[in-house]
Amino acid sequence: QVQVVESGGGLVQPGGSLRLSCAASGSISSIYSMGWYRQARGKQRELVARITGAGSANYADSVKGRFFISRDNAKNMVYLQMNSLKPEDTGVYYCNVVLRFDTYWGQGIQVTVSS
After folding, report:
1. Which residues of 58-94 are buried (b: 16+ CB within 10 A; e: fewer)?
2. 104: how many CB neighbours lie within 10 A of its CB?
3. Distance between CA 30 and CA 10 in Å, rounded?
4. What is the distance between the alpha carbons of residues 83 and 111, in angstroms, rounded to a whole number?
5. What is the pLDDT of residue 29?
6. Residues 6 or more apart from 110 whose CB is under 8 A from it?
7. At 1, is the pLDDT very low, low, confident or very high (cuts 50, 70, 90)?
8. Residues 6+ apart with CB under 8 A from 105
9. What sign has the CA pseudo-torsion 86, 87, 88, 94?
10. Three-state DSSP class for residue 42
11. 87 SS3 class
12. What are phi and psi of 87, to 5 degrees?
């Protein structure tokens, strides 16, 4: 079994920054990729950013240049640095961990961008 736990969300004003963290633990032999998805109210869950073990990252067009994903392979952790936040970045952010044969999700963490 694999546990995925997010932290670091909260309320921030437009233009502000937040850093999300995600830790994966349990029966992990090899993680292919780790990433972040988000779901705004009334909308489908969408990819925000994803990074492979080799460090290859991809981002949603809406966050390019503002969000930065990084990973600590030794600790099985992934981070999302979010800068210049906009109200449309508001939503529940989910950490995603892809292993060889399974995919795991965290419970989600709320990010609210509002003045």
Report:
1. ebeeebeeebbbebeeeebbbbbebeebeeebbbbbb
2. 18
3. 31
4. 13
5. 77
6. 9, 10, 91, 92, 93
7. confident
8. 4, 94, 95, 96, 97
9. positive
10. coil
11. helix
12. -55, -30
In tens, the pLDDT along 16-56 reads 999 999 999 998 878 889 999 999 999 999 999 999 988 99
Provide the b/e sequence for 6-39 (b: ≥16 CB within 10 Å): bebbeebeeeeebebbbbbeeeeeebebbbbbbe
- Reported in sequence order, the residue ranges of 9-85 that DSSP labels E, i.e. its strands, are 10-12, 18-26, 31-39, 46-52, 57-59, 67-72, 77-82
Which amino acid, residue 77? M
| Residue 27: partners with Cβ closer than 8 Å, 6 or more residues away | 1, 2
Look up residue 39 and give its two tokens: 């779901």
The predicted structure's pLDDT at residue 33: 94
Calpha distance 75→34 (Å, rounded): 12
Say which DSSP state 44 is in. Answer: -
- For tokens 């779901």, name the residue: 39
